């Protein structure tokens, strides 16, 4: 900025995406009426999204002072989220190791779109949340962070992805209202979530261990319980194969905090309501989830790349759920991308998902989804 010691960067993107769903007959038999290809559901979904970011940095006597803002707007055509949404995706400042504002959750490691085009039904943490954190820089690229995060802000209330980003899985409304509505198992937020991570970034790649402590505060008079989640991941650069090649691996487990380990998994892939806990017995009966994820990106040329990913999610409802809502879900993806010119991407993706139910009366089901995206960054 002329006349000041602050550097300002403007950036963003414009994106068009098309999704086409192809569910099997078993999928249609076990899913709700709003599932794709049903009379009341859309067989295709389109999204137009724009993002505008502003990054301001100033060198001070006490270190770097940074503020970052990202605005997003999208127009979508999905089953229950048609329309235009405008929201603040990020708005934070960093100074002397402190991060304050709306930023990427410090629990997250592998995020979209590092490997694939869509996070739907993938167990990847990619959540923005209101937080206050302190990061201690150790030696050799190692950092340790302690973050206090407000889980009621973990999804954009007006966004099409409100449910998939939620870290309080127990709401029945798509609008993601963060207050008790009379139908939800969650009451109000009494304590913030506590996040800790230990991370390393070096020339070979990066790795991170994360842990989350979360309160399952019920809407009835039962005593609240502590939920928790742990996660470990590694991302390895593989320039010996081709420049820009990378392998990512991640595993996580949660008890009473399912949204932390599978927040890309909306539950729309099953016919069940997936929640952090249930109140069937009058007490807080917690669910559990285990996820593993692996992905590899290979650059065939300077402009053409492919990414392949495989994800597994295992959801265990509490024993009090006599409906036996346990299931496992496998998701496999293959992405082909072309960058004809700098900052321009044309990509297509094929996604296969299969759900295996524990309930013997339900048939295991699968579906195939195709994606197409045009995106220009600046």
Q: What helical percentage do the residues reach? A: under 10%
Shape: globular
Overall residue-averaged pLDDT value:
86
* Main sheet characteristics: 16 strands, antiparallel, barrel
Oligomer: single chain
Radius of gyration: 21 Å
Give the low-pLDDT segments.
33-37, 157-164, 172-182
List the total number of helices: 2
Separation of termini? 19 Å
Largest sheet: spatial strand order: 1-2-3-4-5-6-7-8-9-10-11-14-15-16-17-18
Class per helix and strand makeup: mainly beta
Folded structure, characterized:
This protein is mostly beta strands and 378 residues long. The chain is built from two helices and 18 strands. The strands form two sheets. The chain has a 16-stranded antiparallel beta barrel with strand order 1-2-3-4-5-6-7-8-9-10-11-14-15-16-17-18. A hairpin with an 8-residue loop joins strand 10 and strand 11. The longest helix has 6 residues. The chain is globular and about 70 Å long.
């Amino acid at each position: 900025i002329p006349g000041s010691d602050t550097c300002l960067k403007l950036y963003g993107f414009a994106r068009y995406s098309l999704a086409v769903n192809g569910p099997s007959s078993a999928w249609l038999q076990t899913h709700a009426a709003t599932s794709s290809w049903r009379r009341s559901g859309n067989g295709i979904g389109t999204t137009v999204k724009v993002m505008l970011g502003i990054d301001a940095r100033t060198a001070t006597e006490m270190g770097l002072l940074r503020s970052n803002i990202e605005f997003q707007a999208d127009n979508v055509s999905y089953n229950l989220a048609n329309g235009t949404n405008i929201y603040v995706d990020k708005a934070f400042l960093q100074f002397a190791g402190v991060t304050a504002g709306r930023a990427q959750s410090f629990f997250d490691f592998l995020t979209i779109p590092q490997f694939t085009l869509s996070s739907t039904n993938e167990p990847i943490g990619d959540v923005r949340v209101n937080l206050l954190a302190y990061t201690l820089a150790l030696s050799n690229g190692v950092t340790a962070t302690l973050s206090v995060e407000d889980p009621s802000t973990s999804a954009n209330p007006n966004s099409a992805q409100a449910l998939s980003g939620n870290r309080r899985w127990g709401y029945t409304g798509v609008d993601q209202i963060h207050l008790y509505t009379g139908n939800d198992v969650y009451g109000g937020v009494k304590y913030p979530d506590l996040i800790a991570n230990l991370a390393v970034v070096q020339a070979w790649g990066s790795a991170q261990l994360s842990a989350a402590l979360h309160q399952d505060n019920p809407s009835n008079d039962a005593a609240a319980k502590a939920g928790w989640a742990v996660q470990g991941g590694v991302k390895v650069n593989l320039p010996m194969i081709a420049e820009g090649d990378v392998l990512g691996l991640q595993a996580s487990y949660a008890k009473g905090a399912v949204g932390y380990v599978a927040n890309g998994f909306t539950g729309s892939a099953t016919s069940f309501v997936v929640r952090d806990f249930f109140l069937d017995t009058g007490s807080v009966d917690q669910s559990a989830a285990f996820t593993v994820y692996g992905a590899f990106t290979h650059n065939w040329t300077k402009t053409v790349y492919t990414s392949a990913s495989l994800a597994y999610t295992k959801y265990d409802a509490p024993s009090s759920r006599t409906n036996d809502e346990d299931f496992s879900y496998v998701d496999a993806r293959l992405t082909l991308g072309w960058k004809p010119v700098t900052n321009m991407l044309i990509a297509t993706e094929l996604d296969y998902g299969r759900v295996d139910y524990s309930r013997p009366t339900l048939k295991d089901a699968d579906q195939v989804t195709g994606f197409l995206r045009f995106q220009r960054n600046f």
